[in-house]
Design brief:
It is a single chain. This protein has one domain: TIM Barrel, CATH 3.20.20. It has about 280 residues and is an alpha/beta fold. It is built from eleven helices and ten strands. The termini are far apart.
């Protein structure tokens, strides 16, 4: 396992131990109760409905590659900006040690009504149950953080039992094989090299050729321009996940509007062509 991922895993262990103890005592919080008996908004439906490329806009305060990005804007501030400027869904960093995230950011952003992806380093079934106690619609599973397919499959099955969707993140063909063997339906291709922390869209370009029928694919990391979003859509990606390039701007909402307009323009052009 990459050194950085090993550090992320190590940071998760105390929390996992705490959650397991709560589970053994029957003291884990219950599943999130939505107002008026509603259900979690479907992450996959939001991506398909937005038209390629759907934009998953991320609330990201800091990262190992950039350090502090933006600590001034609250989760509610950013949720409002993103919802008003074309986000199909939100990605919410909840990892605290390296990204300055918190689990309660999900609740703080839920008022916007967008499906939310819990982005963290999730390794244990107890963390799926923890996520089910929030308003998140989906969670991230990084394939190379798991020892084998059976562990991923266990997490996917538990997600389905609790009406959560899993986004399975891959960096290469081996990761992609593991995701598919486990039964993944949503694939996220990460363009970042974890050894150098540099991004290269060649990863998304290469893996796009292997997209399977019915799969939802997301390209993440290193996406900053309308031309790049158009390229990802042309390659077959249903969505893009964008965080740093939005959060590093004084007005993330305005930055998103520039990019989200790409999806709207493509959809309008397609509709005009079908007319």
């Amino acid at each position: 396992m990459n050194k950085m991922l090993a550090q992320f895993r190590e940071a998760q262990l105390p929390g996992i131990t705490r959650l397991r103890k709560l589970a053994e005592a029957g003291e884990l919080p219950p599943p999130w109760h939505f107002p008026d008996g509603g259900e979690r908004p479907l992450f996959s439906r939001a991506l398909r409905g937005a038209g390629a490329p759907a934009v998953i806009a991320e609330y990201k305060r800091a990262s190992p590659s950039r350090g502090v990005i933006n600590l001034e804007l609250t989760p509610a501030d950013v949720a409002r900006m993103y919802a008003d400027n074309g986000a199909a869904a939100f990605s919410v960093l909840t990892e605290q040690a390296h990204f300055q995230g918190r689990l309660d950011f999900l609740e703080a952003m839920a008022f916007a009504g967008k499906p939310m992806l819990r982005k963290d380093f999730l390794l244990d079934p107890a963390q799926v149950l923890e996520t089910a106690a929030t308003p998140a619609s989906a969670l991230l599973l990084i394939m190379r953080m798991f020892p084998g397919t059976s562990e991923v499959r266990e997490m996917l099955e538990l997600c389905r039992e609790h009406s959560l969707e899993a986004v399975c993140e891959v960096f290469d063909e081996a990761d992609l094989d593991m995701a598919r063997w486990a039964g993944a339906e949503i694939i996220q291709v990460n363009n970042r090299d974890l050894d150098t922390l540099k991004t290269d869209l060649a990863v998304s370009r290469r893996l796009a050729r292997t997209k399977g029928l019915g799969e939802i694919w997301i390209s993440a990391s290193g996406l900053e321009t309308p031309a790049q979003l158009n390229e990802m859509a042309d390659l077959g990606y249903d969505a893009v996940l964008i965080g740093t390039s939005l959060m590093s701007r004084p007005d993330p909402g305005a930055a998103l509007a520039e990019l989200a307009g790409v999806s709207a323009a493509r959809r309008a052009a397609a509709e005009q062509g079908d007319a």
